[in-house]
């Protein structure tokens, strides 16, 4: 009977997990700020050399990123930074245009004074991040704003779908917010939506939210089509 292989100490396993999480976080930030655009291949050996570690925690980091839909692990190519096709982008914004205004119409009448104060504070934080060029925070703050607006809709399944759609269009939306005019419009429309909710003009708030999403989607689709034409 062969001797049992000794288990790796718990401290080693924890250190290993910590290293892979740190690598995943570093790569995640590069993807989210556009340094690693969609389609770029992430070679395990090159990353291991860059970080000065073995390939095992790099592979685990890439699996974590795949679970977050930031990376696709493909046969014969390995890990590739994921992206959206034009058709996927159109689908995402069509779904958001359908779902979010309906959910806001259900949620807005139940937004409390405290909810609205929190939303105004979040909107100001979003504006500061836009003005400061803190790109990595734009998607997070925008998603929080939209989801907090809809929090009282009483439709948990629909909210889960919207949350996934917002995550999917996080990176593309940063592209759309690359011009001062689009930044100014995003800030203004967020404030106007809140003002309408506060005034209990629910239908008007829902319609402005639809227009807001439609404009972002239209701008992004135009950017994607322009990029395809150049390619």
UniProtKB/TrEMBL annotation:
One of its GO terms (molecular function) is DNA-binding transcription factor activity. It comes from the Bacteria. Residues 17-84 form the HTH gntR-type domain. The keyword Transcription applies. Keywords: DNA-binding, Transcription, Transcription regulation. Pfam families: FCD, GntR. PANTHER family: TRANSCRIPTIONAL REGULATOR, GNTR FAMILY, TRANSCRIPTIONAL REGULATORY PROTEIN. This is Transcriptional regulator. It comes from Methylobacterium tardum.
């Amino acid at each position: 009977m062969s001797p049992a292989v000794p288990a790796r100490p718990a401290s080693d396993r924890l250190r290993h997990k910590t290293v892979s999480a740190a690598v995943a976080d570093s790569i995640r930030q590069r993807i989210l700020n556009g340094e690693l655009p969609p389609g770029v291949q992430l070679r395990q050996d090159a990353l291991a050399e860059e970080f000065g570690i073995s390939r095992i925690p790099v592979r685990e980091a890439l699996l974590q990123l795949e679970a977050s839909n930031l990376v696709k692990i493909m046969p014969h190519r390995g890990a590739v930074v994921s992206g959206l096709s034009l058709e996927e982008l159109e689908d995402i914004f069509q779904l958001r245009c359908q779902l979010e205004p309906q959910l806001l119409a259900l949620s807005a009448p139940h937004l409390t004074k405290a909810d609205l104060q929190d939303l105004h504070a979040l909107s100001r934080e979003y504006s500061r991040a836009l003005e400061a060029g803190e790109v990595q925070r734009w998607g997070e703050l925008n998603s929080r704003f939209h989801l907090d607006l809809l929090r009282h809709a009483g439709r948990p399944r629909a909210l889960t779908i919207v949350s996934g759609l917002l995550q999917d269009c996080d990176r593309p939306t940063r592209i759309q917010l690359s011009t001062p005019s689009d930044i100014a419009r995003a800030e203004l429309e967020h404030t106007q939506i809140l003002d309408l909710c506060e005034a209990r003009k629910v239908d008007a708030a829902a319609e402005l939210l639809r227009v807001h999403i439609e404009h972002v989607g239209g701008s992004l689709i135009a950017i994607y089509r322009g990029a395809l034409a150049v390619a």
